[in-house]
From TrEMBL:
Full protein name: Triokinase/FMN cyclase isoform X1
Superkingdom per UniProt: Eukaryota
Gene it is expressed from: TKFC
PANTHER family listed in its UniProt record: TRIOKINASE/FMN CYCLASE, TRIOKINASE_FMN CYCLASE
Example of a GO cellular component annotation carried by this entry: cytosol
GO BP field: glycerol catabolic process
SUPFAM superfamilies membership: DAK1/DegV-like (SSF82549), DhaL-like (SSF101473)
Gene source species: Camelus bactrianus (Bactrian camel)
Alphabetical list of Gene3D superfamilies matching this protein: 1.25.40.340, Dihydroxyacetone kinase, domain 1, Dihydroxyacetone kinase, domain 2
Length: 597
């Protein structure tokens, strides 16, 4: 079965993708009749060197996203995972030559098709009298033994786009558009620079890239290129959906990153990067296309910790999508050994849209954690009672926690019908946070302080809209209890909590939310304001009303919350938030009854 893709046609997807990038970027232009993007200020480059790169489409934002001052002059794109046509490469060379540039440097990833097509275009252009040089980039660190084809060109190529600045050959006065004459030229595997140079991508092992993926990708109109079992990941794969050098068992992000760095820096690996304690590197954490930003951040954190744990100084870190493989859910790590001259090239300004706005300071050695703010001192509370009431509060909270933990799967099942299926998980997270807090010591004896502490705890640990709503409710409910803690004060506390939930949550009774249960209970608790009110009699009625209201949400149309976006007008299950709120009230009642309070 072919994968689903949002394209107009399989045949035209590469053209449409490049056209979309150019249409939204005033600094770019398309070359008529060719799949070529060029700087729109091409005529301003008279007397300077043009830097052209390219390859198959499907690696976006590479390479067209790196066109701009300080990086590429233009890009020639092929069909998906297909080398660009010789005629288009030659047309790009002619275009920059006719704009007045004094020569062209072709930056080519080390793949057979790219070498052949760019090489043939170079020979044809030189036959026309156009000065053209070519450098072939190979930064792959996957292979432990030398391959005849050499190291593949991977994400390290992007760093070459940034720092490959022509120097002054003897035959021409070549200048870059952003750097002074005499700037160093970095070269890669098999490449020859037209002047003196500093190697940085593969040829002298100054950089290396290694990829890992959870699954394959699929070319538009085709099936995935390989299959992985649920407990496997692919290590050392390329950027065209091809399989890697070996498969490893699924593991934590920390473990996967450690395996990758071990492989990349192992001296017995012919394609290793000689990174050791004391080395200074640029780290590139590249999304291969389908990894979530959440996972990307986790991988970045693991890479920084692992490298610094090995004594490696991270001079700069780039995290994002730089060279993808369509929708492949994986990452690649690139390490580039650097010194101050190379860092100046990495740090130099560029207008390329895909180059990150990166801080020009070292990652290693900076202070990146600020001390937490001090909490205000608590004012004395006149409602604080003795140890007996505090122990009762502990028993009530423990009963609530046990109830919520027991309901986790049930609440998740209810939530899957209208949300993301995590209502039970969220409430269980709150229950475990409260249990942990109780183990740390006795809770405050003051009801107002207790509710305030619980509010802060849930806001921090529970998460989601439920955590915010409970936090609001408890914060507001605590206020009336600062002066008194009799039954009328508890009724007023319920009123204050409900008012805060409605004010900020925008829900109303009947909207099929947790408010329905709490509102029904609150109406019954109004009776606490009457002289001689009976605690248990009224609380029992309140709990039964809350449970009935929760069940009634089964037949309600959702007017607020995530369920309100569900296409069906009515849902056939009760709202999980309302069920949870009613269960909390039931747990409180039963805990109090058990103590004879």
């Amino acid at each position: 079965m072919t994968s689903k893709k949002l394209v107009n046609s399989v045949a035209g997807c590469a053209d449409d993708a490049l056209a979309g990038l150019v249409a939204c970027n005033p600094n770019l232009q398309l070359l008529q009749g060719h799949r070529v993007a060029l700087r729109s200020d091409l005529d301003s480059l008279k007397g300077r060197v043009a830097l052209l790169s390219g390859g198959g489409s499907g690696h976006e934002p590479a390479h067209a996203g790196f066109i701009g001052k300080g990086m590429l002059t233009g890009v020639i794109a092929g069909a998906v995972f297909t080398s660009p046509a010789v005629g288009s490469i030659l047309a790009a060379i002619r275009a920059v030559a006719q704009a007045g540039t004094v020569g062209t440097l072709l930056i080519v990833k080390n793949y057979t098709g790219d070498r052949l097509n760019f090489g043939l275009a170079r020979e044809q252009a030189r036959a026309e009298g156009i000065p053209v040089e070519m450098v072939v980039i190979g930064d792959d660190s996957a292979f432990t033994v030398l391959k005849k084809a050499g190291r593949r060109g991977l994400c390290g190529t992007v760093l070459i786009h940034k720092k490959l600045i022509p120097s002054l050959p003897s035959t021409h006065s070549w200048y870059s558009d952003s750097f002074p004459p005499g700037a160093y030229l970095c070269v890669g595997a098999g490449g020859r620079c037209p002047g003196r140079g500093r190697c940085g991508a593969g040829g002298d092992h100054k950089s290396g890239t290694l990829g890992v993926s959870l699954a394959s990708c699929s070319v538009p109109g085709s099936k995935p290129t390989f299959e992985l079992s649920a407990d496997e990941v692919e290590l050392g794969l390329g950027i065209h959906g091809e399989a890697g050098v070996r498969r490893i068992k699924m593991a934590t992000a920390d473990k996967i990153v450690a395996i990758m760095l071990d492989h990349m820096t192992n001296s017995s690996n012919v394609s290793h990067v000689p990174v050791q304690s004391g080395s200074s590197v640029v780290l590139m954490v590249n999304n291969l296309g389908g990894l979530s930003f959440l996972e990307l951040g986790i991988i970045a954190d693991a890479a920084v910790r692992s490298l610094e744990g090995r004594g490696v100084k991270i001079a700069r870190a780039l995290v994002g999508t730089f060279m993808s493989a369509l929708e492949m859910p994986g990452i690649s790590l690139t390490l580039l050994l650097v010194d101050e001259p190379l860092l100046k090239l990495i740090d130099a300004d560029t207008t390329a849209s895909a180059w990150p706005n990166m801080a020009k300071v070292s990652v290693t050695g900076r202070t990146w954690i600020r001390a937490a703010p001090t909490e205000p001192l608590e004012a004395p509370d006149s409602t604080a009672t003795g140890g007996t009431d505090s122990k009762q509060m502990v028993l009530v909270l423990e009963r609530v926690c046990t109830t919520l933990l027991g309901l986790e799967e049930h609440l998740n099942a209810l939530d899957r019908a209208a949300g993301d299926g995590d209502c039970g998980t969220t409430h269980s997270r709150a229950a475990r946070a409260i249990q942990g807090w109780l183990k740390e010591g006795q809770p405050p004896a003051s009801p107002a302080q207790l509710l305030s502490k619980l509010s802060l705890l849930l806001l921090e640990k529970m998460g989601g809209s439920s955590g915010a709503l409970y936090g609001l409710f408890l914060t507001a409910a605590a206020q009336p209890l600062k002066a008194k803690t009799d039954l009328p004060a508890w009724s007023a506390a319920m009123d204050a909590g409900l008012e805060a939930m409605q004010k900020y949550g925008k829900a109303a009774p009947g909207d099929r939310t947790m408010l329905d249960s709490l509102w029904a209970a609150g109406q019954e608790l109004q009776a606490w304001k009457s002289p001689g009110a009976n605690l248990f009699q009224i609380l029992t009625k309140a709990v039964k009303s809350a449970e009935a209201a929760a069940e009634a949400t089964r037949n309600m149309e959702a007017g607020a919350g995530r369920a309100s976006y569900i296409s069906s007008a009515r849902l056939d299950q009760p709202d999980p938030g309302a069920v949870a709120a009613a269960a909390i009230l039931r747990a409180i009642l039963e805990a109090l009854q058990g103590q004879g309070a």
